[in-house]
Amino acid sequence: MSRHDFVAQLGLSLGLLAAAGSAAADTIRLKNGEQVEGEVIQRDELTITVKTRSGAQLPYLNNEIELIEAGSAPTTAGHQAPATPAIPTAPAPTISSLGDLAPAVLPRTKPDRATLEARVAEVLALDNVSQRKGIDAVFQLGDFMSEEGNAARALELYEAGLRVDSWRLEYQLKAARLVLAQGRRVEAIEKAKTVYQYTESPELMQEAKGFLAELGTPVAARPTDDPALAKRPEIVLVPVGGVRRWLLEDFRQELQTKTGLKYSIAPYDFDAGPIDRTYASHLTGAIVAQILAEAPPEQVKAALSEAGLAKADLETPKGRRAFLEVFIRKTAGPEQLAKFRQEISPLEQTGQRDAERLIKVLAGRSPVAHDGQVKGYVGVLEADLFVKDNNFVFGWAGPSHGVMSYHRFLAEFNGEPPNRTRLRSRFVKQVISSTFYVLGIERCTSATCMRAYPNDLTEHDQKENELCARCKEKLRAVIGPL
Ligand SMILES: [Zn+2]
Which CATH number fits domain 227-274+353-479: 3.40.390.10, 3.30.1330.130, 3.40.50.150, 3.40.630.30? Predict the structure, then answer.
């Protein structure tokens, strides 16, 4: 059983069941292979809530979701699809309903070869959709074969995997090497070029680049800076915490082309400090809010009293956690409480950094001299950012200093196939938005200008890759003609 069952049961015990929904069913595919049908009734940056046909309202973290397929119009009476159970009855997954959130907490154990062979035979007998859910085993067995020197079988397995999941770029590159060994050079080059062009992983990009060079088809070198840029006003990008530094290098040129400013990358890494807000605290906030809105007040009162808490304690993560311990045990039972603990524990070790705190630290460490060439610093994080009560922010900035995070721009965060061009566009739009604040230029009112305010990633993607005429004018007024 996963958290979904747990929340569903909690929902039942709370009497949250609403009338069975009749709206078009969306299909929500989870990264753990489960699939839920229902209507997405609420969506924010961290979670979605799905109302199933039975009326249960199930919250999911966006990170758990692989894909949401929008449903078609409700079927007509005579052709009604059979009711789908809210929760799939397939065996519960052993790990990973929290997926990428907690790789360090939930290590993937390496199965032995016989287990893997059996699993692969099972997976390959399934239809394409079902195959894809278990495809890791096929790739893993491919790796086993490759390590043992059985190149033919390894390639066969990699190709079987790529047939249903072609965006596993690390395996495209492994397959490219084996394909080359079979003399299929053109195919190998094509595969490696795709990997190089699309990957968002620095290691894979370097590897593909090296392989293409070996094949005598090196990728074009990054253009060098226009010497005229040396004297332009400068913005320094400061890596904060662990970042993919190549990303900054890769995207710097476009920042310069779009703005006429010089962008440099600080040679040092700036410490992001401890996590300021955990995802667990955010999630317990959402669960407690739902309980307060929908559970009988006497149940809440009884749990508060047993936990020795006042209602005001529910404002704090610690208070909420203590309350939920008692409330879940009393209303849903000890088994559900154990599941709740198991699900929430990894979320206590991951979370977000406070953008305002980081800006203060950055400003203290790197002051800007008004007559200098450097006009501001933009901290760049891979870690997630928030400000005040916001669920998250892509970036935050004031005069001279700002921070931005590409956390929510990554394919792996959104469950999308990798696409570095898309990542570059998202990154550049955000850094340029931050840059304008750093330069003291007020917010733009255009909807499509690259620095328009986006409420979410869809709106961010919707913006053009260019500054509007008015923003260009304002920028020139501050930094002088290009
Ligand atoms: Zn504009």
Answer: 3.40.390.10
